[in-house]
Amino acid sequence: MRISELSRRSGVPNATIKYYLREGLLPPGRATAATQAEYDETHLRRLRLIRALVGVRGLSVASAKQVLEAMTEHRTDPHEVLGIAFGIRPSGSGDPGAAEDDGTDGTNPEAAALVEAMGWSVSEHNPARQIIDRTLRTLRSLDVAYDWQALLPYAELAERTARYDLDRIESITDPLEKAERAVLLTFLLEPALMALRRLAQENESTARHGGRAHP
Amino acid sequence: MRISELSRRSGVPNATIKYYLREGLLPPGRATAATQAEYDETHLRRLRLIRALVGVRGLSVASAKQVLEAMTEHRTDPHEVLGIAFGIRPSGSGDPGAAEDDGTDGTNPEAAALVEAMGWSVSEHNPARQIIDRTLRTLRSLDVAYDWQALLPYAELAERTARYDLDRIESITDPLEKAERAVLLTFLLEPALMALRRLAQENESTARHGGRAHP
Predict the structure, then answer these.
(1) Where is the HTH merR-type domain (chains A, B) (predicted)?
(2) Are the beta carbons of B157 and A157 separated by less than 8 Å?
(3) What is the distance between the alpha carbons of residues A130 and A109, in angstroms, rounded to a whole number?
């Protein structure tokens, strides 16, 4: 297909595709004339993955390029590819997935205690660890007595959530396609999962405190 | 206590407290001299609630004032107060909790189908409905075939999450304090709950695809 059709089918503007080509995120098409090239389904799929990393995971173009290269290098190992997509595995020099320094020593002791209590096998590099410790610190700064043990029931529900998540991508065999889908579902579903919690909270509050449901 | 101690104990800067006093969010203290006033524990608690609404729920000062007035008016009914705190119940003229118009007809049919299937009692005004429909539209625009039925297993987990959430504030009897805590826990816990999901995903991926855990 021509670049215009690639643009139409991916929803990515022409100029953006050309930018990705120049930056080497997207491999060049097969040249058919001095200023014309043919693209195929692999380009379309790669473009979707780029959009997932840049638009959904929020990586810079330079970071996305590193991640794509590392993913391609390990493409036969789905676990490795997923790890790189999520920023858990280092993707080469630099570490675009690493969370910014927040002045702590980086050990995140509360996340570590929680992971151990759950018996989870989780990399030290998983940026989610830092979010756990930071959230608990914030809550305590607001006088809410909350520690990692208070998160244990939620961790058990998260375990079941993750099983549903992985079920949804189980049947995808191509590791890069699997990674794209995993990034999309992990990050894009977040607002919906939190919205479900709020709907369920209202329902639960109605059940406990009575009160008519509002129209 | 003097305003300086109120500032120290709440962590809210002196100037910000004076601003809340001028705007009528915080009731005046008891005047002890021409330029001096005494504040008490009710001021401290109200200040924490203001911070929860403005800093955590992200309301404007004007919206927070409306919400506070509506909450005070209904303070004997915890269900009503929680509904106002979350923006589910209208808080008077204007509707600071209402989600912005996104060009749809506002019926959110997928959220409605989900709520009905779950048998939930949830207000039409709950802004979380819109997030459900918007997320599903976004996923489909990226060629991920996902509808409200795919969210059902997650909704069941959300139901259990909400039970834990409400358990945590069950013992608080003062409705305004309960509302403050509910806003804090609902909004501040969100990143931690999503972080738990990511940790659990890595663990589940390791279990399914093998691969050594990274150091």
Answers:
(1) 1-70
(2) yes
(3) 9
Q: What is the pLDDT of residue A99?
A: 44
Residue B215 forms part of a structural domain? no
Q: Are B184 and A144 in contact (CB under 8 A)?
A: yes
Which residues of chain B neighbour A118 with C-beta distances below 8 Å? 203
Instruction: Please answer yes or no on whether A202 and B136 come within 8 Å at the CB atom.
Output: no
Between chains, do B204 and A155 touch, taking CB under 8 Å as contact?
no
Given the DSSP bridges, would you call strands A30-33 and A36-38 parallel, antiparallel or unpaired?
antiparallel
Tokens standing for A190?
A: 């977040």
Whether B109 and B158 share a structural domain: yes
Q: What are phi and psi of A36, to 5 degrees?
A: -135, 145
Which domain covers residue B59, as residue numbers?
Answer: 40-209
Residue A144: inside a domain? yes
B90 and B23 share a domain? Answer: no
Q: What is the pLDDT of residue A98?
A: 46
Residues B91 and B178 in one domain: yes
- The share of chain A scoring above pLDDT 90, in percent, equals 43
Query: Cβ(B96)–Cβ(B78) under 8 Å?
Result: no
Q: What is the mean pLDDT of residues A35-46?
A: 90
Measured between CA atoms, the residue of chain A closest to residue B89 is: A214
Question: What ipTM score was computed for the predicted complex, to two decimals?
Answer: 0.82
Which residues of chain B lie closer than 8 angstroms to A209, CB-CB? 77-79, 82
Please classify residue A212 by burial: count the beta carbons closer than 10 Å to its beta carbon, then call 0-12 exposed, 13-18 middle and 19+ buried: exposed
